[in-house]
Give the backbone structure.
Amino acid sequence: VTDSRFVIQVVLPTPAHSRLPEVLSYRHTQALPLGTLVRVPLGARELLGLVWRAPAGITAADCDADSDVASAALDLKPIAAVLDVAPLTVAWCKLMAFAASYYQRYVGELVMAALPPQLRELDAVQMNRMLTKRHKKRQKSEADAAPAPATAGSDATPRALAHRSEQTQAASLVRLSSEQTLVLAELAKPDSRPILLFGATGSGKTEVYLRRVEAVLASNSAAQALVLVPEINLTPQLEARFQARIEAQFGAGSVVLMHSGMTPAQRLASWLSAHSGEARLVLGTRLAVLASMPHLALMIVDEEHDPSYKSQDGSRYSARDLAVYRAGVDGAQVILGSATPSIETWHNAAVPVSSAEAIGAAKSGRYRRVDMPTRISSAAMPKVRLLDMRLQKKASLLGGSIAPALLEAIEQRIVRGEQSLLFLNRRGYAPVLHCSACEWKSDCPHCSAHQVFHKLDRRLRCHHCSLVSPVPRQCPLCGNLDIGTQGRGTEQLEESIVQALERNLGGANTARVLRIDADSAKGKGRLEAQLASVHAGDVDVLVGTQMVTKGHDFRRITLVAAINPDSALFAADFRAPERLFSLLMQAAGRAGRDVAVSAQAEMWLQTHHPTHPLFKALQNHDYPAFAQSQLAERQGAMMPPFSYQALMRCEAKTQEAAQAFLDHAAALVHSEAVFEPWRDPQISGFVTLYPAVPMPMQRVANIERAQMLVESASRAALQKMLAAWQPYLRELKVASIYRWALDVDPLSI
Ligand SMILES: [Zn+2]
Ligand SMILES: [Zn+2]
């Protein structure tokens, strides 16, 4: 013990508001390299920690530099144990340091998000026992001459295995289009810039991803690749396809998954496999961007525009943006793929053509854009038809929501043996019940929202706090028996279409209607079974929320209809049009994926605003025109990407308390006597703090929420101001509020 004279700096996986210092000191008998995983005492507990240096000072030399030897070391608590796991790399530690500073968090909070939960829970003895077992298992499987699919067992689902043999066979048959070949040649060029792969839906991006991964992994026997997808559970085919192709070439166990739906044991196994270099490809969701991959050579962010890449709690990082940073420190290639890129990414990749020069040409070309406009096997893009709802007689609308012409088009598909997809982004039967005699509405008592009427089990449900109540027989206010519904949800749409088809097509020719939304997909395996029945052709009409618009490769769908897309057109959030365009483009992409039926493929939009430019651009499948108009609008209003934002959020028992906290935080900044950085005109001249306001969803589960926008034309000024603000904020008295949090680059304001 007397020999424990080395001072070791450690970060603990704790958030900033835990009121501990960001870096703690311990003593140990020898120096430990940066990134070593240790167990350390804290109070009565023992926690997982990571050996750290001052973030600014991380260099390659830190890897083996001796820790400081201090005479004060004896006053420190000793490190309890050093885990028998290779230290995290310098590049990985740099990623943590950058993410912590950019998103204004403690390093430990990012480390907590990055490490699998079980790594924190197992003590050193349990951990070492587990590692020994794992090591033995690996030796055994390597010794077995016979191929051992069991190695991948922990990660491979039965359905993935079932797909495997047929997929492997299919792989050798896949012939690249000339466009795919050209794109792959572009991707192979030595250019370190991030790449935007701008590819139409159905243009064969997945095959390009696969080939690029194969090429990179084959070029270097240690190289690793990371493929990020928005939601893995919605696209089981993708998982099966990657697993089959990569494992066929690089061996069983060369592919691991990483997403929050896995068990703690599976997540730890995947993490260790990636960390040891055994896994060559990690396929995962947002959290996988923080995975330890010592030989990372390629990152692909599929559907890079998807909002799910931004974490909505904890450290609130953007996996897409971190991937771009990480590519820099790891010297890896990063490919952002999308048919409808985020406006920010599009701006970064803008090519300096004459039309784009007007809008921020100075920044153009920070990313390299590679286009892939053609649908595979020359399947045509679906024809977009705008159905002017102003011309429809209300009484003629089926179930109050479907125009007769649309119903006719659906019936034609059924007769031809093709499928239709009706899309409505509202689940339940009706969004609200109301009394026609008084003003009663089925409001949630705990939230600023209505309780939604679900007819199937006769319940009112709040989709925000999950409160469930029975449907009242009469108006709770005035006793009126005539309570009605307002608006329509997917349940009602399903009911209307079933009734209409029964009536029109007759009993012998019953159409099969299936609804897929968060309610129908509840329960393990339900969603997969439902999707399988669509693929098998057991469904004529598919009714669903945006769940059904993403990524699915439905071959027989020739009609996609958006029942009520108007609501997002005039939303307060400046990103609403971008999201609507991408959602509709994605949905349109579900139609006509099979060349045999692509000529009949149509997308119908029921709208009261048929001349809206967004719909016009959609009709022409013209994302660039849409993006350009968005960029022009945002530049005029100085919105991102022409300005940078952070949102301070606060939750409290009352709205007054929440806003008072934010006002106080703002007053602190404006008082130059207290907040020194504000005296710097490079900061105060460029940063604006807006007044505190209630959040768009003001109350959820009886918690009042308020927010304050901080905006700047200079990213550097905003970052400096936020960093200087943090220590002051942490000192603020928080007794009157529940919590506060800062969201850098918020997705919605
Ligand atoms: Zn009433
Ligand atoms: Zn509620």
Summary: The chain is about 35% helix and 20% strand. The first strand starts at residue 6 and ends at 11. The first helix runs from residue 90 to 102. The CA atoms of residues 135 and 379 lie 49 Å apart.
